[in-house]
Amino acid sequence: MQELISFIKQAVLQISYELKFPDTSYEKSQNHTGDTQLKFDILSDKIIEKTLSQCPKIKALISEEKEEMLLINDEAEFIVAYDPLDGSSLMDVNFAIGSIFAIYEKSPKASNLKAAVYSVYGPRIELVVCEDVACLYRLNQKDEFVLIKELKMLEKGKINSTGGTQKNWDKKHIDFIKALFDEGYRLRYSGAMVSDVHQILLKGGGLFSYPATKDAPKGKLRAFFEVFPLAFIIEKAGGKTSNGENFSLLELEFNDIHSTTPCFFGSNYEIEKLLKAYT
Ligand code: AHM
Ligand code: MG
Fold first, then answer.
1. Could you state, in order of their start, the residue ranges of all structural domains in the chain?
2. pLDDT tens across 182-238, in order?
3. Which ligand is nearest to the CA of 91?
4. Closest CA to 149 of 193, 108, 204
5. Closest ligand 1 atom to the C-alpha of 221?
6. Ligand 1 contacts CB of residue 192 (under 6 A)
7. 77 assigned binding-site residue
8. Which CATH superfamily is domain 2-150 in?
9. In this protein, which residues make up the domain named Fructose-1-6-bisphosphatase class I N-terminal (predicted)?
């Protein structure tokens, strides 16, 4: 696993170099799910594909930017699912964005997740790597990722980060979000899931949600390369997750590699409150 993670670090480092002087324009094409692609979405995807293809442990790659799974080496044991550039709609405003990686053994299933990694390209380059515990690393001046600390969620947080078009929220979500604000929670939402969840993890608590809405009844965020890896990290750090009905996002199963799900990530208090409000 360490070898595989070292290839991910190389790809993240290269994306971070390219982000210093990026081309922020759009391609004319769209990806298969209908998202308009930035040139940088495609560049990040190519960097990750090229770097990870050299890792002998990787069987296949699943990317947000590719319709099909890409087979690399049928004999190898791990499948890496990744979002090359999460929050790319914020490239133009120079907010923090990131890359997300989920490492599955044998086949892509939440129960086969062995590790998850994400990067944050902000004022600093940070990496969270999680097998059994969630560890925060920072890039130093020698281009090395240096361990800073283990990340742990507290029982309860103070921030509320909620996505989806509000006019399309249903009443139970409106009431639940209002109840958190009435209790004193403060709004924090950038529009890059990776940065918004990173904030909750670093502050030790709070809620990130992207609910089912009238225009997106199955949510917006993608299970295999956005929701599962971040749920794995939050739960290993002592937090909780749910789709609004169950006790963990990691209980969910999907066949389509681009499936989406409503999702909630938080500390114990907020997820228990969610389940009471929703069920
Ligand atoms: P992306 O991977 O194409 O950037 O899309 C995912 C992003 C998430 O990072 C973020 O939470 C969400 O889409 C924001 O969506 P919205 O603009 O509807 O709030
Ligand atoms: Mg994304």
1. 2-150, 159-278
2. 999 999 999 999 999 999 999 999 999 999 999 999 999 999 999 999 999 999 999
3. 1
4. 204
5. 6
6. yes
7. no
8. Fructose-1,6-Bisphosphatase, subunit A, domain 1 (3.30.540.10)
9. 28-132
Query: What is the predicted pLDDT for the residue at 219?
Result: 96
Q: How far from 164 is each of 53, 82, 263, CA to CA, in Å? A: 35, 22, 11
CATH of domain 159-278: 3.40.190.80
- For the segment 77-82, the average pLDDT, to the nearest whole number, is 98
Do domains 2-150 and 159-278 share one topology? The answer is no
CA 99, 103, 109, 113 torsion-angle sign:
negative
Confidence band of 30 (pLDDT split at 50, 70, 90): confident
What whole-number distance in Å separates Cα of residue 113 and Cα of residue 105? 6
Residue 191 near ligand 1, beta carbon < 6 Å: yes
**144 annotated as ligand-binding:** no
- Is it the case that residue 26 has pLDDT exceeding 90? no
Tell me which H or E stretch contains 148. strand 145-150
Q: What is the mean pLDDT of residues 161-167?
A: 94
Average pLDDT score over the chain = 96
- pTM of the predicted protein model: 0.96
| Nearest one of 26, 44, 20, 37 to 122, comparing CA atoms | 20
Beta pairing, strands 207-210 & 159-162: parallel
**Partners of residue 242 on adjacent β-strands:** 264
Convert 174-195 into a string of H (helix), E (strand) and C (coil): HHHHHHHHHCCCEECCCCCHHH
Residue 70 φ/ψ, nearest 5 degrees: -105, 115
Percent of the chain with pLDDT over 70: 100
What digits encode the pLDDT tens for the residues 64-73? 999 999 999 9
